[in-house]
Structures are given as C-alpha cells and as structure tokens.
Amino acid sequence: MKKTDDTSLTNSFRPIKRSAGFSLVELLVTLSIIALLFSIMFPSLNRVRGVAGKLMCANNMRSIYYGLNGYANDFSRSPLPYCYNYKSKLLQETMALTANDPDSPYRAQWDGLGLLWRNVSGTQYLDNCKCLFCPSHHGTNGYEKYRSTLNCQNPRDTTLLDVASHEYLTHPKTIAKIYGNYQYAGGYDPQSKEPISFGAPNSQNSVLLSDGMRTLDDFNHTIGGNALRGSGEISWFSYSKIIGLRMTGLPAQEIPTNAQESQFSLIWTAIQTEAGR
Q1: What's the CA dihedral at 183, 103, 259, 65 to 10 degrees?
Q2: Residue 32 · residue 40 · CB < 8 Å
Q3: Are 184 and 94 in contact (CB under 8 A)?
Q4: Phi/psi at 79 (nearest 5 deg)?
C-alpha cells in the first residue's frame, strides 16, 4: 500500500509575511502632491468651463435670433417685439419677460422677448423657453425659478390670464413677474433710437440684446458678455471696455427711472461700438 506523505499536514513555523504599508509622512507627501496638482489644474478647468458657458450662451442667442426672425415673418418684417418697459423708459427692466400691467394692479403682461413665448397669436417662436436663460447665470433669476409658469399649458390657469389691457388687448397675462437672463434693447437702435425692422439693411449692426446687466444679481459671465446684432452676428464684449464699467459699477437694485435711461443708454451705445473689437 502506498504511504501518504504527511509532511503537508504538519504545522508550519515560517513567519507570516506582512503586507507592505506606508508611513504617515508618505501619506502627507502624497496628499500634498495631489493638492498641488489640483491647484495647477483648477484655473485651467475654470477657463474651460467659462469658454463652454460662453458658447452655450451664444447658442441661446442664436435660438432667440431665429425666434425673432419667425416673429418678424408673421408680422410682415415689422419692428421687433414691443417692449412696454423700454417705452416707459424702464431700461433696467428690459431684462424682464413681462411688464407691470398699467390697467390691472398686481398683474403683469408678457413683454419684449417674452412675446416670443406667449403672444396674441398663441404661436411659440422658440423651441424651448429655456434658451431665454443663460447657463452661466450667477443670480437668483434662473430657469428653475420660473419653469412652472413658463411651461403652463392651461390658458385658464391663474398664472396665464387673458385680461384686456393697454396695447395688449388680447395678449395673455401672467400674475408673475418673470426675468430672463438677456437684456433686450427694446427693438430700437441704441444710437439712432429708431425702431428696428428685422432684416432691414440699416439694422444689421444694431445690437438686439446682450447678456443681462440689470443688477449685480443678474449678471451671467464675470468679465463680459455676448451681444446679438441684427445681422445675426454674436460678438463678445468686455465690461472693462464699456465706459470703464466693471461688475461693481452695476446697480445693486432698481434705480430711478431717469437714472435708468441715462445709464443704460450709455451702456447700449458702448456695447454697439465696442462689442467684437
């Protein structure tokens, strides 16, 4: 009979090998290297994020441009969407998609760029109202704040009332004051103050809208903004080139009407002459 080798059954007294470890000093050195790499990469990541935000913002403006084109086609290339805020010299408020209804206290009427989404014909000239909001917006007037009101489909809902008022005899109304993220030039050339007819030769260089500058709480990008011209060109302008304006030069809240007209007229003219240089 073959004998079984029982050497494998005997206890082994060989020392157990310990797994390799690292000391506290090595851990601290590793963490320091990781922190250093992050400090080197972080500015680059911020720049990439900023460039991406500028491009997405420009795409929003391009969508708005197509919406303006559709609106103009339906209204025989007439002046751009009416802006009660501009006509009332509330130039600071031209960032709003609604205006206070002068005939119905505590209600607002769709105004300016808001008419591309809600208007007398019931036509939506934008594929998505989200393009009225810049992805780089830093303030409190982002898309999520107004999403439910903007996407309301029930015309009898209290957020979308049909109330005869002023020059909007049959325009839908909303009880909510809604702010987009783009400053509308009111449908007027900033320098000549003449109404702009979409596509007209003399309107090609006119700035139609820019990134929002209503207050410090409404800016989108930190160093400048995009501006859309009548030709469809979208150009970048620097705050520092606009009459020395910096973010600290923007008002912290709504300012008197006469001050709005003088300040924002200068800003619009400066954007028209400086954007893209």
Answers
A1: 10
A2: no
A3: yes
A4: -50, 155
Whether the Cβ atoms of residue 190 and residue 86 lie closer than 8 Å to each other? no
Q: Give the angle 111-112-117 at the CA atoms, nearest 5°.
A: 75
Residue 123: its pLDDT value, please?
A: 84
C-alpha span between 244 and 26 (Å, rounded): 51
- Joined tokens for residue 3: 């004998």
Taking the C-alpha atoms of residue 160 and residue 64, their distance in angstroms, rounded to an integer, is: 22
Name the DSSP letter for residue 121.
T
Give exposure, 148-181, as e/b (b: 16+ Cβ within 10 Å): ebbebeeeeeebbbebebeebeebbbbbbebbbb
Q: Which residue type is seen at 16?
A: I
Cα distances from 21 to residues 17, 18, 24, 27, 28, in angstroms, run: 12, 9, 10, 10, 14
Identify which of 202, 234, 241 has the alpha carbon closest to the alpha carbon of residue 60.
234
Averaged pLDDT in 10-residue chunks for the chain of 277 residues? 52 55 74 75 63 90 94 81 90 89 69 88 88 90 87 53 41 70 91 84 88 82 88 87 59 78 82 65
User: 191 to each of 13, 206, 224, 253, how far by Cα in Å?
Assistant: 95, 8, 21, 26
Residues sharing a CB contact under 8 Å with residue 275, sequence separation 6 or more, in sequence order: 207, 210, 227, 229, 235, 236, 237
